[in-house]
Structure formats: C-alpha cells, structure tokens
Amino acid sequence: MPSLAAENMAGIQRLSERDYRDFRLHPGIDIWESDLVSHSCPESDMRACRRVLVGLRPLRRGFAGHNPTIFGKILSKEIPADIVYEDDKCIAFKDVNPVASTHILVIPRKHIPQVSKADYEDAELLGHLLLTAKTVAKEQKLEKGFRLVINDGEQGSQTVYHLHVHLIGGRQMTWPPG
Fold first, then answer.
1. Has this prediction a pTM greater than 0.90?
2. What is the DSSP letter of 3?
3. Which of 55, 93, 149, 175 lies at 20 to 30 Å from 46 by C-alpha?
C-alpha cells in the first residue's frame, strides 16, 4: 500500500504527483476515474506542485491508472472485443488476427507492460492467467492440445505493451515456433 500524503477536502483529494503515480502502480486500491488539473506552480518548485483528483465515477477494482494500449481501451470498454471469459482479475477475448481456428488473448486487468516487468507481487496474478487459459481452452473444446505464448519485448515480437497470453489451438502446431 502506498503511503498517501493526500488531504481530503470536501470530496476532492489533493495528491502529489508521486502519490498519484503510486496510486496507478497499486491497482488493487479503489480510486476514482479522474480529470487531472494542474495547479499553477512556479517552474523552480515543480515538486511542490499539486494535482487535483476530481472524482467522477469509481474505476473497476484492479484496473487503475492510464493504460493507453489497445488492451486498455478494451478493458475500459472504449472499443469492443469478442470477450469469451471475464472475471475480476482478467479477461479473455478472440484475437482479431488469428493464426489458428482458435486464437484467444488472456490479459490481466492490471496493466503490466510485459512479463519481464512483472514483480513477485504479481505471482498470483500470473498463475491466474495460466489457469484462466486452461479454463478457456476447455470451454473452446481444445482437448487435443493447445499452445500458450507470451511475447516479451522487441526481439520477442511483442506488439502491444500490456502483458497477454496467446491461447492458440485447433490445428497441429509445429516446432520450433517462430
């Protein structure tokens, strides 16, 4: 839990920029979706500058902060997706560019840019993603087998910087991949 130097004033919380960043990094905290308005502050004292968090509506638990990726927009329902599974920790939806008859992406609600940026505190969530992939594979009747793929970084061919697990099945996979 971040230590918050927040003052609660008639429904408006004043947060330092560091505290706001801490809120974004701890998505288990219920915070409010917000418009951030900068107070005027002297250029020489940017650390003293405060931002105002004006509550509009509660964010979904487990998805806090700004996530500009296409997956962030799917999570916030800004763009549609063919969702096949959803719970409080993750969602699974059909890939728009499938490489097999079944190609589903399982993504956490928490914005983790890539697996190499995950922390030990994310261990339970990472395990949940794999077990969700297993559940979805069973629902998709992939009893003959399937492949799970996590791309990481440029050389790992990651194109969307929000951790995601590819569930691929419905055809014979070849080895080596890629």
1. no
2. P
3. 55
Q: Which tokens go with 114?
A: 């890539």
8-state DSSP, 85: E
Determine phi and psi for 44, rounding to 5 degrees: -75, -15
pLDDT 10s digits, 75-89: 999 999 999 999 999
pLDDT at position 104 over 80: yes
DSSP letter string, 21-73: HHHHH-TTS--EEEEEEEPP--GGGGGG-EEEEEEEEEPPTT--S---SHHHH
For residue 114, what are the CA distances in angstroms to 111, 118, 154, 160? 9, 7, 11, 9
Please pick, among 103, 111, 162, 164, the residue that the annotation labels catalytic: 164
% of the chain with per-residue pLDDT over 90: 60
Q: Is the dihedral of CA 154, 158, 160, 165 positive or negative?
A: negative
Bridge partners (DSSP) of residue 106 are: 92, 165
pLDDT digits (tens, 9 = 90+) for 107-138: 999 999 999 999 999 999 999 999 999 999 99
Cα 32 from Cα 52, distance rounded (Å): 12
Is 164 a residue of the active site? yes
User: What single letter denotes the amino acid at residue 122?
Assistant: D
Task: Say which residue the tokens 């418009």 belong to.
Answer: 35
